[in-house]
Amino acid sequence: MRFSNCSDQELIRFYLEGSDSAFETLLKRHKNKVFTKIYLMVRDEELTEDIFQDTFIKVIQTLKSGRYNEEGKFLPWVMRIAHNLAIDSFRRDKKMPAVRSDDDHDIFQTIGHPDMHVEDQICHDQVTGQVKKLIKLLPQEQKEVVIMRLYYKMSFKEIAETCDISINTALGRMRYALINLRKIVEENNISLSLS
Question: How many domains does the chain have?
Fold first, then answer.
């Protein structure tokens, strides 16, 4: 049987009825998104592989135990598992994702302007470097939302689904993060001006 035209729900049903091919199709369909999400968080290929495998082991265990809620969307559910496992990894290692200015996927690349003069670019790089340091000072929950919003370009709806919180909670965490960042800037007389 060809599974490529089946929905995720159908593939899950076929898998639970004994078809490993159905699960392989499900895995291939979502592998890149899940792997990329994990990699963007941990910035380490080996660790990404480990978390990716742990994610799908947890998916299989949940499916086989009958605890998967059919009403939920499969991909957001898997992404939430991956996110939580990556966060658990950070807590174990006591580190946040590396957000470096020499990174191909720099959180602040979108702010840059290709027509900037060299002096302006240097100032811009210094400011974005300072902002990155400030983000690391935020409480964990606020830091996660800021990184997902700016770094992953996720909507507040996606952030809410990934963190298993309401959209209002996601918006609130972002709001408090911005308030805290402003407070840190004012208290420390930090200048974030490009001029």
Answer: 2
Q: Which residues contact 173 (CB under 8 A, 6 or more apart)?
A: 141, 142, 144, 145
CA angle 168, 151, 93 (to 5 degrees): 95
Which of 60, 78, 95 is the last residue before a domain boundary? Answer: 95
The region, left, alpha or beta by phi > 0 then psi within -120 to 50, assigned to residue 94 is left
Choosing from 95, 116, 133, the residue where a domain stops is: 95
Ordered DSSP codes for 4-36: TTS-HHHHHHHHHTT-HHHHHHHHHHHHHHHHH
Together in a domain, 46 and 128: no
What's the pTM value of the predicted model, to 2 decimals? 0.51
How many CB atoms are located within 10 Å of the residue 180 CB? 18
pLDDT at 119: 58
